Amino acid sequence: MSQDFPSLKLTQANADLQLELGRLVLQSTQEQLELLQRRVEHNLSQARAGMDSLQHSASAGLPTGLSADFWAELAQRQWAQRQEEVEQIAQSQANFAAGVQQAMVCWWQAATHSLTPATGAAQ
């Protein structure tokens, strides 16, 4: 019966590792989906701004083109947004990698402990 405990402890360590990796993947996926949702919302807002600008020009009897300033500002905003997204993605990936590393360390410790004979247990 005492032979079963190391096996049980190792099984528990494996299950804990699987749960933690699953949690990390879920968290990373959720962060990516939130970033994608913000990007879609931002793009919709930019499209609305462009449509509003065209409608305003048309109703004022002005030529119905978007000004060079509009395009320059749009490009600057999109560049800033992309830089922010890259930073968020890099941070998310770093957090994921650190979490996986920590999970593996915990698993290694638990697995090693489960296979190490108990010293002083008879005392």
Q: How would you portray this structure in words?
A:
The chain is mainly α and 123 residues long. Helix content is 85%, strand content 0%. Helix 1 runs antiparallel to helix 2. The longest helix is centred in the N-terminal third of the chain and has 56 residues, at 4-59. The chain starts with a helix and ends in an 8-residue tail after the last helix. The model has no long low-confidence stretch (mean pLDDT 84).
Order of helices and strands: HH
Gyration radius from CA atoms, angstroms: 27 Å
Spans of at least 5 consecutive residues whose pLDDT stays below 50 are: none
User: Helix segment count?
Assistant: 2
Distance between the termini: 20 Å
Q: What number is the mean pLDDT? A: 84
Q: Main β-sheet, in a few words? A: none
Quick take:
The protein is mostly helical and 123 residues long. It has helices spanning 4-59, 68-115. α1 packs antiparallel against α2.
Secondary structure layout plus pairing:
Layout: H1 4-59, H2 68-115
Helix pairs in contact: 1-2
Q: What tags apply to this protein structure?
A:
single chain, 123 residues, mainly alpha
